[in-house]
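Sequence in, structure out. Go.
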Amino acid sequence: MRQSRARVTDVRVWGGLILLVVAAVLGAALLGRGSETVLVLQAGRDLSVGSVPLDVVPVAVPADLAAAYLPAGEPVDGRLRWPVAVGELIPRSAVTVPVMESTRSVTVSVESGHAPAGLMPGDLVDVWATRADAGGFAAPATDPSLVLAGASVVAVAADAAGFAGGFAVELAVPTDRVGELVSAARGGVLDLVAVPLESQQAIP
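Output:
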């Protein structure tokens, strides 16, 4: 009887040890999978609709989540379909191949204090114009008018020669609106107003 009980006890002990080993192996495998990470792209600043996501930071995410986001180390071929706020991971679905639009690059002079601080390429701005008097200053009691909505900033040259007291901003302008913008720039004072991310319309 004692030998029989000892054998049963031995079987239970060995069975328990085997279960512990199996559990430890499975746990280590699961933890190993959870520790695998992949570098993807995170927005380094607010990125507007239609911009190429260049201001980005590589961050590590679990490997099973990485497929949904732009991988780090690969060139970004396309523009953003919707805005991405600073600190957000950039989804693959947010980037689309840009449709060739009929636009022209127009450089305008902007006086100091008449554009958002930290204006950068890729930002979206509304262009407002106020009629100028003979001295080139905004005419009194003149309401500004919206010339162009949601223009994309191509380049900013704060030290551009020939723009005394201000700086040059290059904008992407639809071809049929170029004349209107040039006329407004020559006959008035321009103000660039930033379009916040929450007001930007996603590209279908």
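Check: The first strand starts at residue 37 and ends at 43. The longest helix spans residues 2-35.
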